[in-house]
Amino acid sequence: MKYFEWESSVVEAVANAMAISHSDASGVVEAQPFYMQQYWVKGMDAELTAARVIEAA
User: What is the pLDDT of residues 1-14, one digit of tens each?
Assistant: First the structure.
């Protein structure tokens, strides 16, 4: 899986978990670049990453 595919999955998971639009979820994800980079490097799945990004937000 490439980064952009993983990031898209994270955005979708955030949108579903928070019951918000895809564009709002994109904003939440983009506001957490440090966590996104760390979780990508660690190989975390999109669902777990989304949960951690929501906690950080």
Answer: 899 999 999 999 99
Alpha helices in 1-57 (DSSP H): 3-18, 22-30, 33-42, 46-56
Whether the Cβ atoms of residue 11 and residue 45 lie closer than 8 Å to each other: no
Tell me the chain's radius of gyration from C-alpha atoms.
10
CB 52 within 8 A of CB 35: yes
3-class secondary-structure state, position 2: coil
Mean pLDDT of 17-22: 97
Whole-model pTM? 0.93
